UniProtKB/TrEMBL annotation:
It comes from the Eukaryota. The keyword Mitochondrion does not apply. This is UFM1-specific peptidase 1. Coiled coil: none annotated. One of its GO terms (molecular function) is deUFMylase activity. InterPro entries: Papain-like_cys_pep_sf, UFSP1/2_DUB_cat. Gene3D superfamilies: 3.90.70.130. The lineage of its organism: Eukaryota, Metazoa, Chordata, Craniata, Vertebrata. Signal peptide: none annotated. It comes from Fundulus heteroclitus (Killifish). Keywords: Hydrolase. Belongs to the peptidase C78 family. Residues 32-223 form the UFSP1/2/DUB catalytic domain.
Amino acid sequence: RLRTEEKVCQQMEALLKNVHTGLPDPLTGPAKRSLVKGDYLYFHYGCDGQDDRGWGCGYRTVQTMASWIHLNGSPVRNPSRIAPSLAQIQRALVTMGDKPGSFSGSREWIGTFEASLVLDFFCRVPCKVVHVRGGGAELEQVAVEELRQHFEKHGSPVMMGGDRDNSSKGLLGVCTGDRGSYLLVADPHYFGRQLERTELQRRGWVAWKPVSSLDQSSFYNLCMPQTAAKGV
């Protein structure tokens, strides 16, 4: 196990940093924009050699969030590790009593609530979980304002997930103007060889997405690490 963990660590250290850099704003007119502050790594399906397609998106978003905490100077349980591995996340949730023993080594996905437990366990950072009851107007109003306040105050990436729309998303920013609001999404579902930042952006794996494009009939939860941005 130790040798495997060392290999995973090496692969993590080679991941792309700050994949949103250079992406043009989604609105050309007057707009309010709030972005992630500081550095993070982009985690996605298979990025550490483990093929987790179909179930690992939540874990990958948690890893992106943990990397931000690590790189921006917050105290972590293991300061030499950028982010916990998928196996470590599963073992931690079993240790905490949130999951049964059978969860460890399984292909069961995790959501925003588990993300908050994991970040508190490994990074000693509490999270605020915001429930948005439905898409449409409530997303435009509640989620956008919560995200704006979060990026201005804390600066860390946010995890977003829902019920009908249960694909985990990493959120790196929010932008609002006359033509509505946009979320800056780091999509953890990319699988394949490591691409250049510009190619990831060209293919839409890191992109501004209109809030109106999200599932209007899904509820959404936001997991927001309560950290003060440092060194920015």
